[in-house]
Here is the input.
Amino acid sequence: RNETTLPTQSLFLLNSDFLIEQSQAFARVVLNDTKLKETDRINLAYQRAFNRVPESFELQRTLTLLQDLDQSLQSEISQTEQRQLVVWSTLCQALLTTSEFRYVD
Here is the structure.
């Protein structure tokens, strides 16, 4: 069977309470080791989601996404720890909704 995804599948995953909870749990795992650098955390997230490290362009885009999200949320969420959980949960949700995560290669 060919790999296909419908827009409704993606919308369901983005709005799913279950997936949001799993994304938050995933983010807590990634943030658990406070000694890790941000790039190490990204590598860990990709390793757990896709069983591989990110390509260099993926790493750069992910770093940019995390920085942009953090910056945009600073006025809404002043507590750094809480803001980091939201930022990383957003990234983890994005990883979990990709076709690469949903399909076995």
Q: What stands out?
A: The longest helix spans residues 56-73. Residues 7-102 form one domain.
